[in-house]
Design a protein that fits this description.
Elements (H helix, E strand, L loop, with lengths): L1 H6 L8 H33 L4 H16 L2 H22 L10 H26 L4 H8 L4 H31 L11 H12 L2 H30 L1 H8 L1
Helix pairs in contact: 2-3, 2-5, 2-7, 2-8, 3-5, 4-5, 5-7, 6-7, 7-9, 8-9
Amino acid sequence: MEKYLTLLSFSEGGWGMAFLAATGMTIALTVCIAPLGFALGLAVALMQRSKHAVWRWPATVFSSLFRSLPELLTLFIVYFGLHILLQAVLRWFGYQAHISINAFFAGVLALALVAAAFASEVWLGALRVIDRSQWEAARALSLSRTKTFSAVLFPQALKNALPMLANNWLTVLKDTSLVSTIALVEIMRQSRLAAIQSGEALFFFGTGCVLYLLLSAFSDALFRRLEKYSHRPEKAERAK
């Protein structure tokens, strides 16, 4: 037991600080990817509900495409594809400078696109259950479409979507392990590095499992509190 505590210590020869930094990277990725993906997913869902095909079809293709592609393939396309595209654009303008894509940016962008595709389906379902009469009541009160959505429809859609968005958040948290393939040191990559250098593969991959479980448990508790908070007006109304 003492041996394993030493391996996870913050002293020289211990991996504690490295795992702490890796956990911070995993949290940073999740916090950047999920909100961006959820917001983009809402925009895609609204486009899919449009009566105009010029908005509806691109959104449908986007959702179908990124829900069908493996997340790892999407990550590679964004990471290497952006590099190739930027190099081609520079050559077209006569520049030969070397461009490197930031791995954190590429990871956030790629996984946010995937998260948006899945979140769009969640938002579509949440918007469908809102009674059409709410639109008609808002129109009768002369509310603009923007005001109707922001003040009437979005709060209800968010409440309906929270349980599934919580699942999407956990999926994003787990998918951050994929960025280890483009040299970002998060929990998965740090577990592998520690396992290779120390020869204690089972222990360090087990450490990674525990860290993911702790982050998932914290996320689950947070979303449960958010769900309870979103239902407070209904409970207050029933209590009258």
